[in-house]
Amino acid sequence: MTTELSYEGTLKELQTDLGVLRYHEAGDGPPLLLLHGSGPGVTGWRNYRGVLADFAEHFHCYVLEFPGFGVSDPGPDHPMMMAQASVGMFLDGLGLGPVHMIGNSMGGIVATKVAIDEPHRVSKLVTIGGMGKNTFSPGPGEGIKLLMEFTDNPTREALVRWLHSMVFDRAVVTEQLIEERWALATEPTTLEIARRMYSSKAMAAMGAAAAASTAVPYWAQLNKIKAPTLLTWGRDDRVSPVDMAILPMRDIPNGEVHIFPNCGHWTMIEARDAWVASVLAFLTRPEGK
């Protein structure tokens, strides 16, 4: 029997070098950090409000709101760069050692990078789509292209098209969901920061920078991940197609994959019960089992 958790009742804040980081805290037990994805109107609470109570029965949960998404302070830099930096600041600020991490989409990439660069911070890693590299499918995926369209020209119709690309069952995209996403996505500061990441101009610049860079991309360093890792994916994901899981499945030493049928990018929402059961089984499994 899960307990009802409220937004206001779980919301806290922490002062850091990136400004105020807001987060939701619930439950007792080993620490579990939940990291949200990107996109118009996203927040950590909206990603995980439907499953937080389930995890809070087993873990001391922290849902971090990344800088630049309209809940924590905006921050001055590219959202992806601030996101990874904020994880270390947050864990150090609360005096937390190794934690389990769950990351949705962009949050999964952030958690993966932390597991590569700072392995002492991650005891077990769970990702929801997002991470890896397109192997057979073209990149960027359909959902990313629709996200770029909305960011360049934010209309309600463009938002709905993007939301529909996130799911297998369009009934998940309710009027309430559209309205709450629209309100935050069009808030001026949040929209300006989104354009640092997902405007067509920003995406082109990122592609050019990656092509010119001599740095080793994170997806070529997955073999460095020491933490046991569970990749979860919707079979019908049109944002980060499921073939992206092939490289991490091969390269992460203690990696395993669970693919959910009739499910898009929001696995924790569309395949909620099956996803929660799979993730809890993985996180509570004794070491070495």
From TrEMBL:
It comes from the Bacteria. It holds the Pfam family Abhydrolase_1. Residues 30-270 form the AB hydrolase-1 domain. Keywords: Hydrolase. InterPro entries: AB_hydrolase_1 (IPR000073), AB_hydrolase_fold (IPR029058), AB_hydrolase_sf (IPR050266). One of its GO terms (molecular function) is hydrolase activity. PANTHER family: AB HYDROLASE SUPERFAMILY PROTEIN YCLE, MONOACYLGLYCEROL LIPASE. This is Alpha/beta fold hydrolase. It comes from Rhodococcus baikonurensis.
